[in-house]
Specification:
Layout: E1 2-3, E2 8-20, E3 23-30, E4 47-53, E5 56-69, E6 80-94, E7 100-102, E8 112-122, E9 125-134, E10 137-140, E11 149-151, E12 154-164, E13 169-176, E14 183-187, E15 195-197, E16 202-209
Antiparallel strand pairs: 1-2, 2-5, 3-4, 5-6, 6-7, 6-8, 8-9, 9-12, 10-11, 11-14, 12-13, 13-16, 14-15
Length: about 210
């Protein structure tokens, strides 16, 4: 870590985690027919997604983070600041069976993720714009490689603003995913039709109060 005067920091680190009985999402199982299908004969033909415990996993990672307030700038520009972080993971493990998932094929871990943004903090205004990116990741596991469900890369931009009306009250406006970038899932990557969930732009506004 290295600290900037009077306000700021840059840091980098590496880590190794060994995990046992990790949780993962298991999908692609089709509910069978008959009274003994586990659901009293109902839901035949439905696809079942559930949670399960795997065997062991190893996660190697690198993290970088930067944050600084530009207090050296003149006048009103002192309020500007910037921040960024980046994480890279490599995973390997098994799902309680003989098959071993290697190099970024352990569910729940995003191999590449990054955030970068610009802020402005100067009484009574606080403003932040942030770009968030996540790379391709394994969303749902199945013993058959053809039924693995992958999450595709996504980049989202958020805006947050606060205006302090007084010492006790402040008005805020948050806008999430302003470019309406969709969440996309693929079975066996591009080998089957995609399942797209498009999250509409979200606006949150209100008044904060404190005693």
């Amino acid at each position: 870590e290295y600290y900037f005067e009077p306000a700021g920091r840059v840091s980098a680190g590496v880590f190794l985690k060994r995990i046992s009985d990790f949780q993962f999402s298991r999908g692609g199982v089709i509910v069978g027919t008959g009274a003994n299908n586990g659901f009293g004969g109902d839901y035949a033909g439905f696809e079942l997604t559930t949670r399960a415990n795997g065997g062991s996993a190893e996660v190697k990672g690198f993290e970088f983070a930067y944050q600084q307030q530009f207090t050296f700038l003149p006048g009103w520009m002192k309020g500007f600041g910037a921040f960024a972080n980046y994480t890279r993971l490599e995973t390997e493990g098994d799902y309680g069976g003989t098959r071993v998932g290697t190099t970024n094929s352990i569910t729940g871990f995003v191999p590449k993720a990054a955030n970068v943004g610009l802020s402005y903090i100067r009484t009574p205004i606080s403003f932040r714009i942030q770009l968030k990116h996540k790379g391709k990741f394994l969303n749902t596991y199945n013993d058959s490689p053809a039924r693995l469900v992958w999450g595709m890369p996504q980049t989202v931009v958020d805006i947050k603003a606060v205006y302090n009306i007084s010492r006790r009250f402040g008005a805020y406006l948050d806008i999430y995913n302003i470019f309406n970038d969709p969440n996309r899932l693929f079975e066996w990557e591009y080998g089957r039709p995609q399942n797209t969930r498009r999250d509409s732009v979200m606006f949150l506004a209100g008044i904060n109060g404190r005693l």
